[in-house]
């Protein structure tokens, strides 16, 4: 059988209609990509017929190497040694774009195009409850449609229990150690660890050290306010026993010269959000889009977040809100590279872009 040829090193964004049948080109020879035009005749490769369950956009594979036929799964990134970087034209066209300063006020946002922004968290501006300060850094009022993100400063001691009714919560501890109790079940959480809290569960955090800790919650569907309680419910979902996932080199997925590791996703309980850690070398990615809405925290390294006509400086601890389909590019200017945590809805692979 002839091998499929690479029709495109990027996927195709298409609009699908519910119930309609499609034939995805598997041989790579069709002139009507990503769909079949009959050019597979004689190759021994058949098109893949599928029906869409719903109306909506989808990202279909163009490289014909996907493991999730007919959808892109990011396999196209393995066809090159270097992740696609901004070309000379893109760099020249944006050379005069000035860095957008942070606004005044407690959020300290740099507003970019399409509702994208970068903000520097100011815990002192957030309301206190016992040993914690808690406030939203991404919410409906910021233009987010599906997820919200909350920041908690945890001083030594134990917090009251809280939950986000009707929402799944994915926590992230960038550094330090804490004890987390989820609906009566205790977990030890180390640095760069993501933790999943199922819908309906509550949690409390205990900081046994001397220094304050920073904690991020990605909440989906977004929830305007948490609900606090003194009584921890006893409704831990034991169908999902493992909850805390840290850095594991054996789970690193290459994306050309970049890496990512999914911490939480469909495989371990989270139906709404995929949470990952990524590593970016000194580079500026070519402008691209995702079909998902994303919240990013910079862990190490510095650089810029670019949109069409704006850019903002980013440094460790900063949060980036990236609306669905917003064209963007993240530039790392640090010689040692950049590490980041991303959380996005709907869940999937962080390697899928177009
Ligand atoms: S285009 Fe083939 S996997 Fe993305």
How would you describe this protein?
- The model has no long low-confidence stretch (mean pLDDT 95).
- The protein is 2% helix and 38% strand.
- The chain has an eight-stranded antiparallel sheet, with no helix packed on it. The protein has a seven-stranded antiparallel sheet with strand order 7-8-9-17-12-15-19, with no helix packed on it.
- It is mainly beta.
- The chain has a domain at 1-79.
- The protein has one helix and 29 strands.
- A hairpin with a 5-residue loop joins β5 and β6.
- The protein starts with 11 loop residues before the first strand and ends in a 9-residue tail after the last strand.
- It has one helix at 88-93, and strands spanning 12-16, 21-24, 48-51, 56-60, 109-111, 117-119, 128-129, 132-138, 148-154, 157-158, 161-163, 168-173, 178-182, 185-189, 193-197, 203-207, 213-220, 227-229, 244-245, 253-255, 258-264, 274-280, 283-284, 293-300, 303-306, 311-314, 319-322, 329-332, 338-345.
- FE2/S2 (inorganic) cluster binds next to loops.
Task: Tell me the layout of helices and strands.
Blueprint: E1 12-16, E2 21-24, E3 48-51, E4 56-60, H1 88-93, E5 109-111, E6 117-119, E7 128-129, E8 132-138, E9 148-154, E10 157-158, E11 161-163, E12 168-173, E13 178-182, E14 185-189, E15 193-197, E16 203-207, E17 213-220, E18 227-229, E19 244-245, E20 253-255, E21 258-264, E22 274-280, E23 283-284, E24 293-300, E25 303-306, E26 311-314, E27 319-322, E28 329-332, E29 338-345
Antiparallel strand pairs: 1-4, 2-3, 5-6, 6-27, 7-8, 8-9, 9-17, 10-16, 11-18, 12-15, 12-17, 13-14, 13-16, 15-19, 20-21, 21-22, 22-29, 23-28, 24-27, 24-29, 25-26, 25-28
FE2/S2 (inorganic) cluster binds next to loops.
């Amino acid at each position: 059988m002839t091998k499929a040829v690479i029709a495109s090193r990027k996927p195709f964004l298409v609009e699908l209609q519910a119930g309609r049948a499609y034939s995805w080109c598997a041989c790579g020879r069709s002139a009507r990509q990503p769909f079949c035009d009959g050019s597979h005749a004689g190759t021994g490769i058949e098109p893949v017929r599928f029906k869409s369950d719903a109306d909506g956009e989808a990202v279909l594979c163009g490289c014909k190497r996907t493991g999730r036929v007919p959808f892109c799964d990011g396999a196209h990134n393995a066809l090159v040694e270097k992740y696609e970087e901004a070309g000379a034209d893109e760099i020249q066209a944006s050379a005069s774009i000035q860095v957008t300063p942070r606004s005044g006020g407690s959020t300290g946002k740099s507003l970019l195009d399409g509702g994208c922004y970068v903000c520097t968290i100011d815990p002192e501006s957030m309301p206190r409850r016992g040993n914690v300060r808690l406030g939203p850094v991404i919410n409906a009022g910021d233009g987010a449609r599906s997820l919200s993100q909350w920041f908690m400063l945890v001083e030594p001691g134990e917090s009251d229990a809280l939950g986000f009714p009707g929402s799944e919560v994915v926590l992230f501890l960038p550094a330090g150690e804490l004890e987390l109790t989820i609906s009566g079940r205790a977990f030890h959480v180390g640095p760069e660890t993501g933790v999943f809290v199922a819908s309906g569960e509550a949690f409390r955090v205990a900081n046994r050290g001397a220094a304050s800790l920073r904690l991020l919650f990605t909440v989906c569907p977004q929830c305007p306010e948490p609900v606090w309680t003194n009584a921890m419910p006893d409704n831990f979902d034991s169908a999902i026993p493992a909850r805390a996932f840290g850095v594991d080199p054996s789970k690193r997925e290459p994306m050309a010269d970049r890496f990512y590791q999914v911490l939480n996703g469909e495989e371990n309980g989270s139906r709404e959000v995929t949470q990952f850690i990524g590593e970016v070398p000194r580079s500026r990615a070519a402008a691209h889009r995702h079909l998902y809405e994303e919240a990013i925290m910079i862990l190490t390294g510095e650089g810029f977040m670019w949109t069409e006509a704006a850019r903002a400086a980013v440094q460790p601890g900063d949060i980036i809100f990236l609306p669905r389909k917003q064209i963007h590019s993240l530039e790392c200017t640090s010689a040692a590279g950049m590490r980041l945590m991303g959380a996005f809805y709907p869940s999937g692979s962080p390697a899928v872009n177009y």
